[in-house]
Fold this protein.
Amino acid sequence: MEPAVQRLPAQPRELSPAEVGALAHLYRGEVYRSTIWRTRLDTTTNWSVVTLGVALSITYSSKDASPLPLILVGVLIAFFMLLEARRYRYFNVWRARARWLENHFYAPMLYDGDLHLEENWQKTLAHDYNQPKYHVSFLIAIGRRLRNTYIWLLLIQTCAYFGKVTVHPAPITQLSDIFSRAAVGPISGEMVIAAGVIYNLFWLSLAIWTYRLDHDRRRHRRAGVAMG
């Protein structure tokens, strides 16, 4: 015998004073959890900034210092970004719920007019609690963290790297000097530069592509009630 399926009411209902109080406490809990996960995002960003700063210090410590630390830190920045994107998906769950309550529960209390709210907002929130899931994909999360923070760290890393190979140990006099200074052991400078260009173009393309996906999600959100 199949278990009974819990069906949610199709229309929102009036809440009793006790239920309103419980919903207010629920909102406080969602804000608290989103704040905790926001702090975890800031921690990962701090790790990225610190490691980039260490790489800059080592690379520019002397004219003869190798630019290799600036290359290796790119791997660490990518790792921290992926870790932060995973944390962002958790953060976005709590943030979206808190924002949903602000829009559809608290805003009507503060405004007397027609706010043109989403239909069945209570049903959407109840369904999210009944069957919780991520509101954004991992790629969307990566794109958002890229656009907000990591694209600037990658820009600083890239500029610092090319600044190093063009001025140390002496300012370049011809283009071939860049390739000779960029060489890493048996790997030619041309290959290192090409890999760096592909690396940065990949993240830039991902940031632009996910921005367009986010834009489409916002444009069609009112057609299908959604959170996130």
Remarks:
- Residues 17-220 form one domain.
- The radius of gyration is 25 Å.
